[in-house]
Design goal:
It is built from 4 helices and 5 strands. It is an alpha+beta fold. The chain has a single domain, classed as Alpha-Beta Plaits (2-Layer Sandwich), CATH 3.30.70. Bound molecules: flavin mononucleotide. Flavin mononucleotide binds next to helix 1, strand 3 and helix 2.
Length: 154
C-alpha cells in the first residue's frame, strides 16, 4: 500500500478486559478492524497472548489516521492499561500488505520482543509493561521477524 509521507506508527501494549478474548471475539474485532483500516490506509499487526491476556499492536499509516484510530482504541472497553511503547514517524511501512495481521503469541515471546520488565511488587494483571529495552528500530524489526511467519490477514 503506497502512502505519501508523513507515515506514522504507534506500538502499544494493553490487557484484555474481564476473562480475556474468545476466538470468536477476536474474529469479530479483526473483521471490523480490517474493513476500517483498508478504507483509511492503515496497516499493522495485532499480537494476542491468551495466557496473560496481553495485546501488542502496531498501527501504521498517515499520521492523522493513526492518531485518530488510536484515540478510539485507547478507550475501547475490551481492553485496559493501554500503554504506548513507541510512536513516531517512519519512512516505510513494516506491514504494507496487512490491513491488520494477527498472530497468537505466548507471553514470554511477547515479552522478549517488547523488552518487558515485570514489576514484581504489582499483581500480574496490574503491571504496566516495563520500559522497552530495545531501541525503537530494533523493537520494530523484532516484531516483524517474530510475527511475519505466524501472522495472517484473512
Ligand atoms: C486490541 C484492539 C485492537 C483494535 N484494533 C483496531 C484496528 O486496527 N482498527 C479498527 O478500526 N478498530 C480497532 N479496534 C476497535 C476500536 O477500538 C473501535 O471499536 C472501532 O474503531 C470502532 O469505534 P467507534 O464505534 O467509536 O467508531 C481495536 C480494538 C481493540 C480492543
Amino acid at each position: 500500500m503506497k502512502t505519501p509521507l508523513p507515515l506514522y506508527h504507534i506500538i502499544y501494549h494493553s490487557l484484555a478486559s474481564g476473562t480475556g478474548m474468545t476466538p470468536a471475539a477476536l474474529t469479530d474485532l479483526l473483521r471490523q478492524a480490517r474493513t476500517y483500516n483498508q478504507t483509511h490506509r492503515l496497516t499493522g499487526l495485532l499480537l494476542y497472548a491468551a495466557d496473560t491476556q496481553e495485546f501488542v499492536q502496531v498501527l501504521e499509516g498517515p499520521q492523522h489516521e493513526v492518531q485518530s484510530l488510536y484515540a478510539k482504541i485507547a478507550r475501547d472497553p475490551r481492553h485496559k492499561h493501554v500503554f504506548v511503547l513507541h510512536e513516531g514517524q517512519e519512512e516505510a511501512r513494516m506491514f504494507p500488505d496487512w490491513r491488520m495481521g494477527f498472530a497468537p503469541a505466548a507471553a514470554h515471546d511477547l515479552h522478549s520482543v517488547t523488552g518487558y520488565l515485570p514489576l514484581v511488587s504489582e499483581p500480574a494483571h496490574l503491571r504496566p509493561p516495563g520500559l522497552a529495552v530495545h531501541a525503537p528500530a530494533q523493537l520494530r524489526r523484532f516484531l516483524g521477524d517474530f510475527a511475519r511467519p505466524l501472522a495472517t490477514d484473512e
